[in-house]
Structure formats: C-alpha cells, structure tokens
UniProtKB/TrEMBL annotation:
InterPro entries: AAA+_ATPase, ABC_osmolyte_uptake_ATP-bind, ABC_transporter-like_ATP-bd, ABC_transporter-like_CS, Gly-betaine_transp_ATP-bd, P-loop_NTPase. Keywords: ATP-binding, CBS domain, Nucleotide-binding, Transport. CDD domains: ABC_Pro_Gly_Betaine. GO terms for cellular component: membrane. This is Putative glycine betaine ABC transporter ATP-binding protein. Pfam families: ABC_tran (PF00005).
C-alpha cells in the first residue's frame, strides 16, 4: 500500500509512487452513466436524472446503476470501489471493459477510447490489458489446476510447453505448488480463489479487476487472500481495481477508495482522507466505527519541536500510524520525532495523539 500520497488531495496527481512510478492514469472515466430500463439513453442529463432512485424508477421504469461517475485509476495503485450492496459497484467495474455497455460518458485506457473499440480490440482489452477476477471463480471443473491456469494462454495460442511453464510459475506465485494436478473440486474455497487469481495473472494484464472476490470466503482465509493481494501488489506494482462492500477490506487494501451510494461516488480519497475528513454525514456514518488510530497518520498530530526535543526521543516516519506513535510515546515517556528522511518535521506527544483518537481537531497540525 502506498503511503506516500497520504494527505494529498484526491484531485492532485501523486508526486511519485513507492517505487517511483509516475502515477499516470490507466483508466480515465468521465461523466459515466449506466441506466437500465426503457429508453435508458434519455435519462442522463435530463430533468429526471437527479431524482432519488425510487422516484426515478416510478417515473421512468429505469434504474440508474451508475450515475455521472468520474475518476482516474493511476498506474500502480490499488483503487478500491466500496459501497453497500446495490450501490452500483459491479455495474461500474463491468463498464470498464464494456462487459456492460455504458449509457453515456467517456472511458479511456492508457489514453485509448474504450467506447470506440471494435470486437477484436475489446477481446484484446479483456484478455491482456484488464483481466477480471470474479467472485465465483469460473474454474473449469474437469481440468487440473495447472490447465485451468494455462487456459487463457491456450486461447491466446501459446504453445503447450511454454504455457505450462508459465502456468507453473503462476501457481507457485499464489502458493499452490504441489497441487497442480488436482481438480477444482478437490480444493478449498480459498485455494480455488488462488487458482482464479493465478489464471488472471498468467495473462500478465496491465490491470487486475476484482469484483468482491473474497466475500464468499471464511474470515481467516479471506485475510490470507487480502495479504496475498497486498504482497502481489508490492512485488509487482500491478494496478488493481478492487470492489468490496467491506470497509475494513477497503481500508486494508486501498491506496484510494471511491465510496459509492445510489450509483454515484460520494467521496474519493485515501483511507486517511475518508476516515479523517468524511465528505458528508453518510460517509461519517459509514466510517464511524473505524479505529482512527490505525488509519490516520502522525501528520494529523504534528506540532513544532521545541528546544530539547530536536535531538532525543524515538523517531517515526510521517506515514506512521497514530497507533504506532502511541506505542513509541508510551515506551519512551516523551514525544516522538517525525522525520522525513533526515529532515525533522516536528514532534507528536501524548496529548495530541489522544486528541486525534478522540476525534478532536488538533490545532496547527500541518497537512
Ligand atoms: N441487468 C440489470 N437490469 C436492471 N437493473 C440492474 C441490472 N444490473 C444491476 N441492476 C441494478 O443496478 C443497481 C446496481 O447494481 P450492482 O452494480 O450489481 O450493485 P453492487 O455491485 O454494488 O451490489 C441495483 O439497483 C441493481 O438492481
Ligand atoms: Mg456486485
């Protein structure tokens, strides 16, 4: 997870990713709508477009599953789309590769107009550039693990020896070595999900799209898979769009989170921005129970160092969490110094740390 852009405004491009990635947009989405129902194309931009979902349905028979949504997915980030069931997450992610045809708006991948792609180009997009990992893994029951992983490569026309070698490598990458010859029915749910992940990775797509892939898994296995995704992201810097209705999953995985409600994005920002500065009462309510000290960073508690505080006390990076700082301060009995490399940004003390946990505004904390 990149912490380098913590505190940056959602609309600003990040200076640089953890490994120096430029953060150029992979997907650019502007004013996107998907309306289901009769004469759906008349809804966007019309006088009924802003009606509440229920009234829109009553008046037109239409459902606006995605309403005037704009965002960019930057290279190398984990972009999470979060929202309650029915808020439009699946529709939105399916629109990205036109598995669902958007009603209006614009949509680009690496600057190329997705809405102008012909069938062949779309197939290429879905196979090589933006591969989807589904909740129901879609494994072929009569094929072995290895052949399931190699399946996409087979369709691409890769030779048998080469695709088996590649598949073996992907199976190892998701921790399934030794199970290559099993069939999906002989695997646990978590293992099947890993096969699905390996299959998506085998095509070496630029972006991985996940639609609630872990929601059917037991909590412990789910945790395992989340760590797998974080590890993959870390090792490869692969761009990911990850859909979930689970707030803690979103906070754990997301570099940025788009929170959806009734088809629209109500807030787009880092976990820290969403938890620390909710855009409205809906978001505030949504994040009410989040342990703030585990999401907010010490930047929120900074004050200037006084004489005598500059040269002693524990040191922490600016993206350390409040929880980490509380431990450091409790152990040392004095303030912790916040260092950006060799530069002293300020200190945090117990009083300020407590104020942040309590949700009080801390005066003078630089952004
Ligand atoms: N094919 C469809 N026809 C009509 N309405 C649909 C269709 N697919 C989804 N919807 C509606 O669009 C809204 C968003 O659905 P969806 O994108 O599946 O939400 P989520 O993935 O967040 O649960 C819901 O009200 C759903 O009932
Ligand atoms: Mg869904």
């Amino acid at each position: 997870m990149s912490a380098t852009e913590t505190g940056a405004k959602a609309s600003q491009p990040p200076a640089s990713g953890p490994d120096g990635a430029a953060g150029a947009p992979v997907f650019s989405v502007h004013g996107l709508w998907k309306v289901f129902g009769p004469r759906a194309d008349r809804v966007p931009g019309s006088s009924v477009a802003d009606l509440p979902a229920e009234e829109l349905r009553r008046r037109t028979g239409c459902t606006a599953a995605v309403r005037d949504v704009s965002f960019e997915v930057r290279q190398g980030e984990v972009f999470v789309v979060m929202g309650l069931s029915g808020s439009g997450k699946s529709t939105l992610v399916r629109c990205l590769t036109r598995l669902i045809e958007p009603t209006s708006g614009t949509l680009h991948i690496d600057g190329e107009d997705v809405l102008a792609m012909d069938k062949a180009r779309l197939r290429e997009l879905r196979r090589h550039r933006a591969a989807m990992v589904f909740q129901h893994f879609g494994l072929l029951p009569h094929r072995t693990v290895l052949d399931n992983v190699a399946y996409g490569l087979e369709i691409q026309g890769m030779g048998k020896a080469e695709r088996r070698a590649k598949a073996t490598e992907m199976v190892a990458k998701v921790g399934l070595t030794g199970l290559e010859r099993r069939r999906p029915g002989q695997l646990s749910g978590g293992q099947q999900q890993r096969v699905g992940l390996a299959r998506a990775l085998a095509a070496d797509p630029e972006v991985l799209l996940f639609d609630e892939p872990f929601s059917a898994l037991d909590p412990l296995i789910r945790r395992d898979m989340q760590e797998e995704v974080i590890r993959l992201h870390h090792d490869e810097g692969r761009t990911m769009v990850f859909i979930t209705h689970d707030l803690s999953e979103a906070l754990r995985l997301g570099d940025r989170i788009a929170l959806m409600r009734d088809g629209g994005i109500v807030q787009l920002g880092t976990p820290e921005e969403i938890v620390g500065s909710p855009a409205d009462d809906y978001v505030r309510d949504f994040v009410r129970d989040v342990p703030r000290e585990q999401v907010l960073t010490v930047r929120n508690a900074l004050r200037a160092a006084e004489d005598g505080e500059r040269d002693s006390g524990p040191t922490l990076a600016p993206d350390a969490t409040i929880a980490t700082a509380i431990e450091a301060v409790a152990r040392s009995g004095g303030p912790a110094r916040i260092m950006d490399g060799s530069r002293l940004l300020g200190v945090v003390d117990h009083q300020r740390l407590l104020a942040v946990v309590a949700g009080l505004r801390v005066k003078g904390a630089p952004a």
